[in-house]
Structure formats: C-alpha cells, structure tokens
Design brief:
With about 110 residues, chain A is an all-beta fold. In chain A, about 0% of the residues lie in helices and about 55% in strands. Chain B is globular, with a radius of gyration of 13 Å. In chain B, the strands form two sheets. In chain B, strands 2, 4, 5, 6, 9, 10 and 11 form a seven-stranded mixed β-sheet that branches. Chain B has a four-stranded antiparallel β-sheet with strand order 1-3-8-7, with no helix packed on it. Chain B is mainly beta and about 110 residues long. The chains are: A mainly beta (about 110), B mainly beta (about 110). The interface between A and B is medium-sized, with 22 and 25 residues.
C-alpha cells in the first residue's frame, strides 16, 4: 500500500539557517510527489511537485526538493529560512488522482 | 481567479445536530476531494469525485457521513447526527483530474461539535 512518512514531527531552526525536511514514501511505481505548506488557520498551498526528469525540483518561496529513488525519499530544502516560513509542511504521494499525505512537520523559526 | 470556496468557515454545533459543509470547486476542474484534518489522524481523504461521480468513498468514516455532487460547481458533505469526535477541519479540494495534476485546497471548514 502507498504511504508517506515524515520522520520529524517538529523542527526548530534559527532564522537564516538552512533547512531540510525529510520525507520517505512507499509506492509500487514511479511516484508523483508533492510538498504542501499550511500556515495556521489556512488551507494547503503547493510548494513544488515531482513527476519525472530532473530529480532536483525548484518550487515557490525558495524551496527545492530532491527525489532519490534508491532511498525512496523526497526531502525538502531551503538554504536560508525566514521567520515567515514557520508553518506545517506536508509531503504527499499522488496515486489514482488523489493524494496520500504524511503526518506533517511543524517548523518553528527562532529569531 | 477564485480558488476553492468553502462555507461555512467556522461552525459550532451541538451533538446530534445535522451539519452541512459546502464547496465550490475551481471552475473547469473535474475532480473534487473532501479531506478531514485532525491532530490524531492528520489529513485523511474522505471521498473523491470525478465528473460528479463518487470514485472512492472508502475514507468516509460511517453512515453518518454523506457527500453529494449534484453538478460540477457544487458539493456538500453532510454529517447527521454529529458527534463530538467529528470535530475537525474539513477541506475541500479540486483538480483537473489524473495523476500529477495539482490539487488545490480551500481554506477549510472548522467544525466543533459540543
């Protein structure tokens, strides 16, 4: 069965520091992979997605993610975090037209 | 362009009452999804429509939940009777359908059942 695991429930980084959020998936075929961000009280906004081709994907707000088939991972990165990046981040795998989400990682940014 | 529109944004109701959540998908999208978000279970897919037809309702918790999509621009999720454990954020989302197409989310309906 398809599944998504985000090992880190909560991460705290200092403003200006680099960030990496981990995501591992279980899927029988070539996955469609997504990262969404949810600010408090808001819906989910797409940061980036991967279908095929270049394994390094650029997204909005300076985020990028790298697909590694050998590790079944799709980690999200940002070189320098801003206070406005504090939010909850969800990794998802797309299958049969729908999304299966991980449990989410809450990012806290220290001044 | 208008995104996915949900109403009400917030609802507080008493146990046993009927609750109806409404959704207007993005114009032209032919897939519509209802998700529920709770602290304990995260984001769960409740039901998924394609071209107004329910494709997968395996996530609907029990018979108290029902969803309809009478036309391409409107869907409802109904809970009758409501229970405190139904308290959650309910998201509607839509897409052009098929794997890989971006799924766009509404801002959610925050339901509290007391």
């Amino acid at each position: 069965a398809q599944s998504v695991t985000q090992p880190d429930i909560h991460i705290t980084v200092s403003e200006g520091a680099s960030l990496e959020l981990r995501c591992n998936y279980s899927y029988g075929a070539t996955p469609y992979l997504f990262w969404y961000v949810q600010s408090p009280g808001q819906g989910l906004q797409l940061l980036l997605k991967y279908f095929s081709g270049d394994t390094l994907v650029q997204g909005i707000k300076g985020f990028e993610a790298e697909f590694k088939r050998s590790q079944s991972s799709f980690n999200l990165r940002k070189p320098s975090v801003h206070w406005s990046d504090a939010a909850e981040y969800f990794c998802a795998v797309g299958t049969a037209g729908k999304l299966i989400f991980g449990q989410g990682t809450t990012l806290q940014v220290k001044p | 362009d208008a995104g996915v529109i949900q109403s009400p944004r917030h609802e507080v109701t008493e146990m046993g009452q009927e609750v109806t959540l409404r959704c207007k998908p993005i114009s032209g999208h032919n897939s519509l999804f209802w998700y529920r978000q709770t602290m304990m279970r995260g984001l769960e897919l409740l039901i998924y429509f394609n071209n107004n037809v329910p494709i997968d309702d395996s996530g609907m918790p029990e018979d108290r939940f029902s969803a309809k999509m009478p036309n391409a621009s409107f869907s409802t999720l109904k809970i009758q009777p409501s229970e405190p454990r139904d308290s959650a954020v309910y998201f509607c989302a839509s897409s052009l359908g098929g794997d890989g197409n971006t799924i766009y989310f509404g801002e959610g309906s925050w339901l509290t059942v007391v």
